[in-house]
Amino acid sequence: MMTVDVKLKLSDEVLEYLRHEVQNRKVPLDEVVSDVLADYFDEPTKDEILESIRQSLREGLAGKVRPVEDVLAELN
């Protein structure tokens, strides 16, 4: 991994979020920032989203579904 020194201007809300994550995770700020940036760039592409929707539709049409009551019961 390469180390790069960066100077950032952050809003109060973003800085508070990062501080909160530092306390929750009990890791240094630079590690939290690295994780947040990695998550940001791991967002699915448009093609990946469309393929996921297509796959869901195929499964639904094939009858691979569950009653919503069962799913909601698991969430409670």
Please give a structural write-up:
- This protein is mostly helical and 76 residues long.
- It has two domains: 13-43, no CATH class; 45-76, no CATH class.
- It has helices at residues 12-25, 29-41, 46-61, 68-75.
- The mean pLDDT is 92.
Name its key features.
67% helix; 76 residues; mainly alpha; 0% strand
Walk me through the topology.
Elements lengths: L11 H14 L3 H13 L4 H16 L6 H8 L1
Short summary:
The chain is an all-alpha fold and 76 residues long. The protein has helices spanning 12-25, 29-41, 46-61, 68-75.
Span between termini: 42 Å
Oligomer category: single chain
Q: How are helices and strands ordered from N to C? A: HHHH
The overall average pLDDT, rounded, is 92
Proportion of strand residues: under 5%
Unreliable residue runs: none
SS class: mainly alpha
Number of domains: 2
- The value of Rg in angstroms is 20 Å
- Strand tally: 0
